[in-house]
Amino acid sequence: MRIVSLCPSLTELAFDLGLGDSLVGVTKFCVHPAEGVRGIEKIGGTKTPAVGRIAELRPDLVLLNEEENRVEDAEALRAAGLACHISFPKTAVETAAMVRSIGEAVGRIEDAERIARAIEEAARRIREESEGKPAVRYAYLIWREPLMSVSGDTFISDLLGLAGGENAFSERPKRYPVVEAEDLAAARLRAVFLSTEPFPFQEKHVDEVSRATGLAPEIFHIVDGEMLSWHGSRTPAGIEYAAEVMARVRDGCGPGLEALR
Fold it and tell me: Phi, psi at residue 11, to the nearest 5°?
């Protein structure tokens, strides 16, 4: 089987389903597993794929994500006669369903079931372990200028919610809302998470956002964006990571999370 993946987390999933040798094209952002993707042809970015070249590669299936990839590219690929699998999981449960669906499409049902069950088990266990613990009211920032957060209709919010997180901007109508410094200051936050992707927040940004909002530097934490936003085979580890993040906040640890990265 010949496969093209246009989403980094789906490329990683394909390898974990034992399909590394079947991948004939991936995006320049598909960086995991590093050794595995090194020799695979890069066919553009997630939003700038070389549709003509993909058609020339004659894949049996193209893996896309509704958020990462553009509708017009999916339509162009289909118009070229290519089969596309398009997914858009916003929760851990939906991610398990996506893994099963892709596993069926690529003939790796047993491997997909193993990963899907691991996701469901991790979600169940972490949810149960977080019950009775104090909720952690937080804001999760993905961008710097302007400051952007996540709503409750996101995979990130679901993972942190499993671990007892309370998203201060869960009701915002946009999935990735712009937030003002005043919004953060008034949100009664116990933690502000600065993600390493898509904007690569670093420790120097803690002081910057702290000064802008008037919030204490101690409530800011740099967190691994890949662990909390890549849906697929790393989701069980992502759920565990979310629990570790919340435990660190509850324990009153300061900025960083270096030990968890």
Answer: -65, -45
Which CATH number characterizes residue 178's domain? 3.40.50.1980
Residue 48 structure tokens: 């700038």
Coil, strand, or helix at residue 1? coil
Task: Using the structure block, give the residue that is written with the tokens 């050794």.
Answer: 35
Distance, in Å, from the CA atom of 26 to the CA atom of 79, rounded to the nearest integer, reads 20
Q: Which residue, 78, 61, 75, is CA-closest to 10?
A: 61
Q: Are 55 and 154 in contact (CB under 8 A)?
A: no
176-203 pLDDT, tens digit each: 999 999 999 999 999 999 999 999 999 9
Domain span holding position 8: 3-88
Among candidates 205, 25, 1, which has minimal Cα distance to 104? 1
Number of residues written out for the chain: 261
Residues 6+ apart with CB under 8 A from 35: none
Find how far residue 181's CA is from the centre of its chain. Answer: 25
Task: Identify the sign of the CA torsion 87, 63, 46, 113.
Answer: positive
**Residue pointed to by tokens 């640890």:** 253
Count of structural domains, the chain: 2
Residues of the chain with pLDDT under 70: 253-261
pTM of the predicted model over 0.70: yes
Q: What is the structure's pLDDT at 261?
A: 41
Residue with tokens 């909002």: 213
